[in-house]
Amino acid sequence: MRTHWISEEIVTEMNGARALLATLLDSGVNVFFANPGTSEMQLVAALDAFEQMHGVLCLFEGVATGAADGYGRMTGRPAATLLHLGPGLGNGMANLHNARRAGTPLVNIVGDHATYHKHLDAPLESDIDSMAGTVSAWLRRSPSVAEIGRDTAAAVQAALSAPDAAGESRDESRTGTSGSVATLIVPADVSWSPGARPSAPAQPDTPAPVGAEVIDAVAAAFRSGEPTVLLLGGAALSEAGLRAASRIEQATGARVFAELWPTRQRQGAGVPAVPPLAYRAEDIRTQLHGTKNLVLAGTREPVSSFAYPGQASELTPPEARVLRFPGRVDADLVAALDRLADVLAPGVEPVLAPRAARNLPSGGLNVANWAQVIGALLPEDAIVCDESITSGLATLPAALVGAAAHDLLGLTGLSVGQGLPLATGAAIACPRRPVVCLEADGSAMYTLSALWTQAREHLDVTTVLLNNRSYAILRAELDRVGATTTGLASARLLDLTGPDLDFVALATGMGVPATRATTAGQLAEQFAAAVAEPGPHLIEAVLGADPGAAA
Amino acid sequence: MRTHWISEEIVTEMNGARALLATLLDSGVNVFFANPGTSEMQLVAALDAFEQMHGVLCLFEGVATGAADGYGRMTGRPAATLLHLGPGLGNGMANLHNARRAGTPLVNIVGDHATYHKHLDAPLESDIDSMAGTVSAWLRRSPSVAEIGRDTAAAVQAALSAPDAAGESRDESRTGTSGSVATLIVPADVSWSPGARPSAPAQPDTPAPVGAEVIDAVAAAFRSGEPTVLLLGGAALSEAGLRAASRIEQATGARVFAELWPTRQRQGAGVPAVPPLAYRAEDIRTQLHGTKNLVLAGTREPVSSFAYPGQASELTPPEARVLRFPGRVDADLVAALDRLADVLAPGVEPVLAPRAARNLPSGGLNVANWAQVIGALLPEDAIVCDESITSGLATLPAALVGAAAHDLLGLTGLSVGQGLPLATGAAIACPRRPVVCLEADGSAMYTLSALWTQAREHLDVTTVLLNNRSYAILRAELDRVGATTTGLASARLLDLTGPDLDFVALATGMGVPATRATTAGQLAEQFAAAVAEPGPHLIEAVLGADPGAAA
């Protein structure tokens, strides 16, 4: 469907950069997150010809890629990035990794030297293709202005396709992902040469049909009377998916779990509550103990995030049969879950989480009470980006389940530095919804300049910066890998004091108003004020060392 | 040469991590710059057993890799990095790219999942090898505790070898580089398993001999009477190399130039002054116009950093004969230059730059006067890390040539975000020398947390943050690539106002004392105070828009 907002006159004089932007717009991509350089200047200049395209400046590429991930998770449509050559791509890799794990639709545009310039091995020359290949389900280097239009349309189509449909096979057991990272490498002379034409958008794939035999086979497992677990991920964590799962749970007695750090999960009051799998492998083993049928809907078999000496990494109980539902990544997972619920639970209603009583804790802030404050005061229909790591693992899920209904975006690829960019992109995607970013101190320091973009774009993001002044998760992991520490040298590598990071100063320095809270009361007051006022805010929540001090 | 500081008792109970650290120490590597994760916890714990090893915590991997680059440039020995899996490597790629271009010896250690865990495709799994291969002259994945000692020794040897000797051929025309990026991938179970033994250090390569016929052939070009240019890079920019070049210049009338952004160049009062090649291709063409013999010593044929429409990228004059001296990357470049000077200029003394009169400018700070302040007040034997980009291109070389003698470290790979990390590593390498970092505002935001490491380690670094509130170089590049801009959309992507970055707040938030200067007098006062006081300082030099306002 062409929107025909481009006059033919303009079309005939397009260079490659303009054809690329025109094709993106025609394909429904109207935002890009950019940290450009010389080789991308034509794409920057082309912005002036297309006022419908919103170019968002990021001061670091990891902010651009993480923001594109947040945008794609919230809209189901890709944003584009604009990165400068191999080093720019390198800076964006960590959050492209998270986007790949999330199944986010994302068009990753990397500028390159002019085609005739590459053999000279100029200072910024590097092997972009090899690096990009490690995160991209689809990768193409556009060879000429004759191809740039159709290559752009193909990139958008690939971004909207499930990964294996786009050529990646590793995630084949994960169903219901909405998209892929598609990388388009654009040489500078392809951007600046005339004679390009935009391409009509590619037709989106239609979901693969799910046969009745697939539904029946899974239904039989639920009806077997054996202990059955339904593990949800991807689109199964949408409200519709959760309602279907709750009906199945009510009717069959199966237990239902969610991925720990989801791409996007609806939760809170009025939404079926599904507990997440634990972080620690030993706890997941307890959760799944005795399971005879493990039904995977939009997720993969659970594995330990890391290996630990003497422990198995596989977490599916050895005696369990694994059923992948609906068995194809390109099927409509939510529709399939609905059909399954209709078979297993006709007339059964889902159980919805009640709104929890608003109990505001008091006393010094600590790991046990901060999440209660957020749960009590979370605004309606917020988007919650969670990179609270250790500060949230024990208490956040319980605090959020009775909060106002919201979308939760998690750390899908475990690569830290995601929270602030993700919140930035989510806020661009949903300008009328409040965004709350729960961010750990160590993780914040990878992509902190996302705050500047939030200020530049006047985004309604409230960041709660959880400052425990350490890489707390690594202290725990040090013990778990059986490492013997005897001295200060190792301790210094996990400690973020000396000097203390002052996040109020850091946020203020990037134009984001900031306050500091050391008590639960202060956090409540500051959080309520921040979400009530438009624009970005940051609250540094300094967590005390002693959870026993909680009131 | 084993130093035998490890008792045999400890040796017999070593795990892979301890054997790795012991081998590094025995091989002369006693610093690593770390941003570790779970898979590197054994290496962190092993620090406690080796107090000679200095583990430096960085809050972002690009700081670690840039610091290792600075350390290697100043010592000629590699520092190690410690990075967490593929995403950690990704974050470190941009400054590894710069280190590769600098020919810096660097042992890049990347932790990975346990060998038996990789096939599970856990959340942080990615293709580390393909990514690392794009920046590494040497790359090995250590397969077992039986191999970790010798693999570590091999990594150090590779880091101390010229790139093509280590397997990379692209830089074959660049002589006199001191080292390479050697990447060692260490699976977690290799780190934690017992039974490893440290390995004796590998013998360093001896320089390849330079035959008399090589000296004679180049000498003939200098004696030809034709216009001859000697272009210096790498080790040729050491004081000894520059003295030899100056003698040749005096005796033969050849013109001498230096690479614009050198790995390490000695300059200032008492050192032969060599003008750098310009940044813009058209200016380099003017510099080299009419050259009949182009002698490359430690550098490669000049090429345009980027391609521009309608301009050739090659900058060697078409009529020039190119001579690579001494023709092998693994030769001793400085010794060869000395021999050449003895042949061409017996008894001729080099011309040394005089100390310039200390004229301190006054008036509002701008691109024309800030460098004069630094040149006038630079302390003796400073290390100057230059990432001033547009703010320094026109005025810094002239200001530094008459300053106190110093080492200049440049942006070798053109990948921004290098200055602050480079200064951090240089200060660790040379704790008794003052380090001055000249840093552009846009570039600073990629790796700003280097300031925290400077504070943590009490490093004597004075950062002059040149704030022109824009990506000024991109504004210039926009014109040069022939891009037509007509509106605000493109301008917004090159502008760093709205909000203004407050670098005083940002530095203070990371524990570095900071001040702001808007006049040349303030900069002089604050710079003199900062270099007089140990420890890190930052001065935000706000550059006015009108250079005509300079007094």
Keywords, separated by commas or semicolons:
homodimer; 551 residues; alpha/beta; Rossmann fold; six-stranded parallel β-sheet; 36% helix; 16% strand; globular; disordered N terminus
What is the terminal separation of chain A in angstroms? 59 Å
Number of helices of chain A: 22
Enumerate the spans of chain A where pLDDT stays under 50 for 5 or more consecutive residues: 1-5, 166-173
Percent strand of chain A equals: 15-25%
In angstroms, what is the radius of gyration of chain A? 24 Å
Average pLDDT for all residues of chain A = 92
Judged by helices, strands and strand pairing, the structural class of chain A is alpha/beta
Q: What does the overall shape of chain A look like?
A: globular
Q: What is the CATH class of the largest domain in chain A?
A: Alpha Beta
CATH homolog superfamily of the largest domain in chain A: Thiamin diphosphate (ThDP)-binding fold, Pyr/PP domains
Number of domains of chain A: 3
Q: Which CATH architecture of the largest domain in chain A would you pick?
A: 3-Layer(aba) Sandwich
Strand order of the largest sheet of chain A: 9-13-12-14-15-17-16
* Largest sheet entry of chain A: 7 strands, mixed
Oligomer: homodimer
